[in-house]
Write a structure and sequence with these properties.
It is a single chain. The chain is an all-alpha fold and 356 residues long. It is 62% helix and 0% strand. The protein has 14 helices and no strands. It is globular, with a radius of gyration of 24 Å.
């Protein structure tokens, strides 16, 4: 599934024509995607549609390659799509096992912020001061865009990694899958309801009035169909017990944390602004408490720790099974896999005669 593929050798003479071909193909893809979003709504109903669009993007980017190469995408991503489908289906059963937890989450947010916000939880305080019924504030446009980015950020990053480096793609996917499964297990063990649920009178009005406003910004952009599709999904397919942990913010932090070690520290604040923007979006729009966000971030930390330990254990096991391949004079290919598509070829190791 993660077998390396040698890069395509492109001559200097063919690079301008390849660039023009990619520009044309990607322009067609962008036009088709925008038209689909306007006519059918944003692709968030299930994991198949977003991944289909992303696959078409890889086809457009590498349109000079054969269809046999493009079909490897379906082979590599089939287990991931199956997992996401199982996730979407199974998490809906969690709300029927026991009564959702809500009072503990309200108490946690009030303990952290009530002294500063007059006893309110942050969601109620933010909507009381920023939201106005019947109008769309300018900041609700970026709120809707950030909320929608949840459905594309993680898979889009994975697709880019798949195109450029299968090894990094595999490392990324291990963390994504582990984080998703950890969240799914938690939904069954500790079903928790979001702020909009706790504010409903039929649930005791545990907090002040809360409105689900994560899709309001689409009206200001003129994308009424996109907002209507998201609203319908929130009513028909929403899971009222998937608040703890917040995988929205966990996924946002996952994307950023994966690349932080390779980015200069002066750019860290810019990257970390994304999970912080997602946090504000979810708390302000009534989708999550702050405690949900903090637990989601903790899950990301535990995921990177556990997966990293397993990867190092597996690498050590492979070295042991290689029978001393790490000793001087051992073949380099026993430890270092072939380079991936998009990666640079490894430097040649001089033989014994060259070193002498």
């Amino acid at each position: 599934m993660t077998s390396p593929t040698p890069p395509d050798h492109i001559t200097e003479r063919s690079r301008p024509s390849l660039a023009r071909r990619r520009l044309l193909a990607m322009s067609i893809w962008v036009v088709a995607f925008v038209a689909g979003a306007l006519l059918l709504g944003v692709p968030t109903s299930d994991p198949l549609l977003p991944l289909a669009w992303l696959w078409l993007a890889t086809v457009a980017w590498n349109s000079h390659l054969s269809w046999r190469h493009h079909l490897t995408f379906l082979r590599d991503w089939a287990p991931v799509v199956l997992l996401l489908l199982v996730y979407n289906i199974s998490r809906g059963y969690a709300d029927g096992l026991s009564a959702p937890h809500a009072r503990e989450l309200v108490a946690a947010d009030r303990w952290m912020f009530g002294w500063l916000l007059g006893g309110d939880v942050p969601t109620v305080w933010l909507q009381r001061h920023l939201w106005q019924p019947g109008t769309v504030q300018w900041w609700e446009v970026p709120v809707s865009l950030v909320y929608f980015s949840h459905f594309l950020a993680v898979p889009a990053t994975a697709v880019v990694l798949w195109v450029r480096s299968r090894q990094r793609w595999a490392r990324y996917m291990r963390r994504w899958v582990t984080l998703t499964l950890a969240g799914l297990v938690t939904y069954f063990v500790y079903p928790a309801a979001p702020p909009w649920w706790a504010a409903l009178p039929e649930h005791g009005s545990l907090i002040g009035p809360v409105h689900r406003i994560s899709t309001n910004g689409w009206e200001a952009l003129g994308l009424h169909g996109a907002g209507n599709v998201l609203n319908a999904l929130q009513v028909e397919a929403s899971n009222p017990v998937a608040a703890m942990p917040s995988l929205h913010t966990a996924y946002a932090l996952l994307v950023v944390a994966f690349f932080l070690p390779a980015v200069r520290r002066r750019w860290w604040p810019l990257l970390l602004a994304y999970p912080l923007a997602m946090t504000f979006t979810l708390v302000y729009s009534g989708e999550h408490y702050v405690i949900d966000v903090l637990v989601g971030w903790a899950y990301v930390g535990m995921t990177f720790l556990v997966v990293g330990l397993v990867e190092r254990w597996w690498a050590s096991r492979r070295r042991d099974r290689a029978g001393g391949a790490s000793l001087p004079g051992a073949p380099a290919t026993a430890l270092t896999p072939a380079y991936d598509a998009g990666d640079r070829a490894p430097a040649k190791v001089p033989g014994p005669s060259a070193r002498q």
